[in-house]
Amino acid sequence: TSTVNGILAQRLVRRLEPTHAERYEALPEVIEQFGLRRFQPEGTIYLHRPKPSALTPTGYLGRTTILEFLVMNDALRRLVMQHAGTNEIEAAARAAGMRTMYEDGLAKAVLGVTTIEEVLRVTQEG
User: Fold this and answer.
1) Contacts of 15 (CB under 8 A, 6+ apart)
2) Domain containing residue 34: CATH number
3) Domain count, the chain
4) What's the pTM?
5) How far apart are CA 87 and CA 70, in angstroms?
6) What pLDDT, in 10s, does the model give residues 17-54?
7) CA distance 92 to 89
């Protein structure tokens, strides 16, 4: 553990083709269900849906990553050395600011990079 500085996990999600993606206002129940206010505390939250075009029959163009990056700190090193359970290690990582792959994907959906459906498909969350 003294040589491990961090652990990175990633998955690829389809990227919306930005010039044709259809923007819509997120429903309050969707904002609540996915906790989208943590990514945009103020104002109207817009999401995007793929819109097929001659260039992109699916409405997607390329891929982008969603990431989960755990930066090792002294508290996490101690837990690993004590053979702590995954729940305890995850709680300490979250307390240190780690964002899950699912959360990174939701943040990218709020930014219009991908869709919530794509994040759910890849992370199998929800």
Assistant:
1) 60, 61, 62, 63, 64, 113, 114
2) 3.40.50.300
3) 1
4) 0.88
5) 14
6) 999 999 999 999 999 999 999 999 999 999 999 999 98
7) 5
